[in-house]
Amino acid sequence: MQHLERARASIGGGVTSGLRSVLQPQPLSFTSGRGSRLFDVDGNEYVDYVLGWGPVILGHAHPAVTDAVTAQVPRGQLFGGIHPGERIAAEKLLSAVPAFERVLWSNTGTEAIQVAIRLARAATGRNLIVKTSGAYHGWHDSVLLSYRGHRGGHEPVLATRGQNPRSVDDVRVVEFNDREDLAEFFGAHGQEVAAVLLDPVLSNTGVIAPDPDYLRDLRSTCDAHGALLVFDEVITGFRVALGGAVELYGTIPDLAVYAKALGNGFSVAAVAGRADVVDLVEQGCAHSGTYNGNALAMAAVSATLTELSRPGVHEQLWQTAGTLAEGLRRTFRDRRVRAHVHHLGPIVQVLPGVTDAVSPREFEGLDWSVWDRWSRRLSQAGLFLLPNGRMFLSTAHSSADIDVTLNAFGALDPDLLR
Ligand code: PLP
Predict the structure, then answer these.
(1) What is the per-residue pLDDT across 183-203, written as a single tens digit (0 to 9) for each?
(2) Could you identify the atom of ligand 1 that is nearest to the CA of residue 233?
(3) Which of 145, 178, 224, 298 could form a disulfide with 156 if both were Cys (CB 3.0 to 4.6 A apart)?
(4) What 8-state DSSP symbol labels residue 236?
């Protein structure tokens, strides 16, 4: 705690991304990470299930990524023209997701989402963006809507002080996995829609998988109304499969946005998609950014995608997560704790107090103070956990890490568990 107090004296709020303030216990102060482990300023070691909120899919300081970036450092970082690293990384991305033809580089998921929205508006000449309630697409005014606290209906709700109240004018909300709601909305307003922006797995609200019929419906609905389909694969990309949700579910959007796992922790994001849409950047649709395609990020992307393309990597990620999920189920069953556990690829979701999967609305209504209490205690046992029951796994998580984790959950005070 004293580290956070000291940070507050020079850094607004003490944390450099607002969401970090909700970690339990109060944000720990880390000095280094190696593989699946993190080390704090007080010399404690943790099995890391946060992974920098998702990006560090190969584990911390992965040798191949570290070597690639280190080799680039003495050669310079930012050239202001073009350099081969941008093309090499783009070719690697396109071979991971062969459905796409072009890439644009950006720095964060939030930025890349704005690029995708602009391309969709330019391509269609329309303004309206449709998103699902419970989906987070970054912190920008135009998409930080109805992530939490949606009251039903198609009107979005604002999320933060200082947000442009007119942001709600350009966005409409539909319910995730609800084909009737989609049909109803498009029946009335389909001709106004520039794009549907969809996190194909509701990654930040219960890790809820899409119904394959829903994705197919979305694709044909967008086609029928001349709207684009944009996947936000910031979390799913390169994680649930090398080709992300596009590969896993077989529905091909017009554009997809990638970040997080793309650079194993280096700041990088991308928009990928149809050539005729992405090439609008040559026809008056602005895309810019001083740091776009910087040489260190590109080195990190190429090394990360090379590692993630090795045979068996995603099978191993699914298997490790499956072992953890099954072990947690067993632990909760043996201790008579009501909790539902599922996983989608290397993302495990624990839902305290229920015995089955939940809808996005029900997810919001769960008593998350239970998980917060577990997290505080489990951090003392050497686990670093995200809020809201989600656990990210990397290729560096070993069976020994899973054993440590299950023992820590198993040793929780029974009173704390109920
Ligand atoms: N989209 C999704 C699904 C995310 O989870 C996030 C961040 O957590 C973003 C977009 C925004 O990405 P960034 O934090 O890199 O701006």
Answers:
(1) 999 999 999 999 999 999 999
(2) 3
(3) 145
(4) T
Mutate to test the pocket of ligand 1, among 56, 105, 110 (most ligand atoms within 8 A of CB): 110
Determine whether the shortest distance from the Cβ of 136 to ligand 1 is under 6 A: yes
Here the tokens at position 83 are 């350099």
Q: How far is the CA of 330 from the centre of ligand 1 (A)?
A: 32
b (16+ CB within 10 A) / e for 128-167 = bbbbbbbbbbbbbbbbbbbbeebeeebebebbeeebeeeb
Q: What angle do CA 141, 20, 233 make, to 5 degrees?
A: 55
- Four-point Cα dihedral 54, 59, 63, 69, nearest 10: 20
Look at residue 326 and tell me whether its pLDDT is greater than 80.
Answer: yes
Average pLDDT of the segment spanning 157-163: 95
**Angle at CA of residue 100, ends 94 and 102, nearest 5°:** 75
Of 35, 28, 37, 38, give the one whose Cα is nearest residue 7: 28
| Phi, psi (rounded to 5 degrees) for 273 | 165, -155
For position 25, what pLDDT does the model report? Answer: 75
- pLDDT at position 3: 80
Mutate to test the pocket of ligand 1, among 142, 203, 260 (most ligand atoms within 8 A of CB): 260
Q: Can you give the pLDDT at residue 1?
A: 61
pLDDT category of residue 23 using cuts at 50, 70 and 90: confident
Whether 360 contacts 133, CB under 8 Å = yes
Q: How far is the CA of 230 from the centre of ligand 1 (A)?
A: 14
Q: What are phi and psi of 96, to 5 degrees?
A: -75, -35
Query: What are the pLDDT digits (tens) for 232-269?
Result: 999 999 999 999 999 999 999 999 999 999 999 999 99
Asked if the model's pLDDT at residue 414 lies above 80, the reply is no
Provide ipTM, 2 decimals: 0.99
Q: What Å distances lie between residue 171 and 131, 161, 197, CA to CA?
A: 7, 18, 10
Percentage above 90 pLDDT, the chain:
89
In order of their start, the domains of the chain are 2-62+311-417 (3.90.1150.10), 76-308 (3.40.640.10)
Ligand 1 near 233 CB (within 6 A): no
